[in-house]
Amino acid sequence: MAEFLQKIAQTPGLKAVFNYENFRLQPAIDKKAQAAFIRPNEKLDHAFKNSIAKGLPPINVLPMAAQHLSVLTKLVGAKSVLEIGTLGGYSSIVFAQAGAKVTSIEISPTHRDVALENVAGLDVEILLGAALDVLPKLAAENRKFDLVFIDADFDDQWEHFDWAVKLTRSGGGVFLDDVVPTMIKNGEVGFKADGEVEEKRSVIEKIGEDGRVSATFVPIVANMRPVMPDPMMNGFILAVVE
Ligand SMILES: C[S@@+](CC[C@H](N)C(=O)[O-])C[C@H]1O[C@@H](n2cnc3c(N)ncnc32)[C@H](O)[C@@H]1O
């Protein structure tokens, strides 16, 4: 096996494929894909500009991630989407334009107010409060969603995921964003002084042990230029509720 892979790695034309430096090509590849796949969208452009003008941080999903969420919503045929973390409503707009009624939870009144301006005319309700206060209320009302998108604070990811599963219909999906930065921030993965990789229990193991779902981890290289000069290692978990 190792011999076979070494042989492939030495094959002219393929040698360049096995090069760690290729991650640096991400901005160029992303630019190409954006030019090919992302169609003009006045509502999203306005939401982004209005959010920045109103002082919100530029931490909405990136254009290709937004496209991914749109495709996913259509694939699932999601008619109802629960979102944890509204910000200025950028991703809410994506779900609504993909055909879903959106319920979004936001802890900041300022963010909620800007989001309400941005989502005007779309089927989006925004619930103000901390997700861990609002989610049990939705469960008490027996609400169920086709898809849940978790994109709030890093600290409560597992708790948000747990509630998301309770609030998702059987066969529906839960999308947990920003898994890698959370693991790095929490010291659940990283480099030790000797260069070896440190690994501790993280949301990945917790979800892996959760018999209510089947899950996959999708690593991505996020290109946040011009806000950050280097591409960032990220990844999301996509789970289907059994
Ligand atoms: C990354 S932003 C969301 C971006 C948004 N999904 C988008 O792509 O346009 C995270 C948002 O979650 C909100 N937030 C953070 N912790 C929260 C919590 N515990 N409950 C509800 N909202 C929270 C923040 O105020 C912020 O607006």
TrEMBL record:
Alphabetical list of InterPro entries matching this protein: Cation-dep_OMT (IPR050362), SAM-dependent_MTases_sf (IPR029063), SAM_O-MeTrfase (IPR002935)
Protein name: S-adenosyl-L-methionine-dependent methyltransferase
Highest taxon of source: Eukaryota
Pfam family, one: Methyltransf_3
Keyword tags: Methyltransferase, S-adenosyl-L-methionine, Transferase
Keyword presence, Hydrolase: no
PANTHER family the record matches: CAFFEOYL-COA O-METHYLTRANSFERASE 3-RELATED, O-METHYLTRANSFERASE-RELATED
Organism: Didymosphaeria variabile
Xref: SUPFAM superfamilies: S-adenosyl-L-methionine-dependent methyltransferases
Family that this chain belongs to: Belongs to the class I-like SAM-binding methyltransferase superfamily. Cation-dependent O-methyltransferase family.
Signal peptide: none
